[in-house]
């Protein structure tokens, strides 16, 4: 683990490092959101190749909860400017349209001849537990995306 990384979280088939470039508040938010994901997804683990079963280094976080389409995608595009090859961006959204927008955006990057392609390393949908402290801000469905920039060469 590099000196700028925090302890590794495990989400089969991945190990997830949170970079020290994330603020303390972002690290706490990412950690809390990742706990909503199932700890072990055997179907995902068996469908991944050995190369894809790796460590994801999250260096940026986009919180698109409560934002309507196309804002989660636009914020994702802006955040990807600061992500280099081999690094990942964690995006959460509550707008169902973001699911189609972000997966199509990643798929399109793989079809174009660009220096860096985008791999949608993780795409899951969760329902958060009730949070009585913020009743007016409760969202039923959260869409999780971890996008990894890869070198196409």
Notes on the protein architecture:
By secondary structure, the protein is of the alpha/beta class. It has a single domain, classed as 2-Layer Sandwich (Translation Initiation Factor IF3), CATH 3.30.110.40. The chain has helices at residues 24-34, 42-47, 71-79, 97-111, and strands at residues 5-11, 14-19, 55-64, 88-93, 116-126, 142-151. It has a six-stranded mixed sheet with strand order 1-2-3-4-6-5, sandwiched between helices. Helix 3 links the parallel strand 3 (55-64) and strand 4 (88-93). Residues 1-5 and 41-52 have low confidence and may be disordered. Belongs to the sulfur carrier protein TusA family.
Short structural summary:
The protein is built from 4 helices and 6 strands. The chain is α/β, with parallel strands linked by helices. Strands 1-2-3-4-6-5 form a 6-stranded mixed beta sheet, sandwiched between helices.
Helix content: 25-40%
Number of helices: 4
Cα distance, first to last residue? 25 Å
CATH architecture: 2-Layer Sandwich
Q: What is the name of the CATH class?
A: Alpha Beta
- Poorly predicted regions are 1-5, 41-52
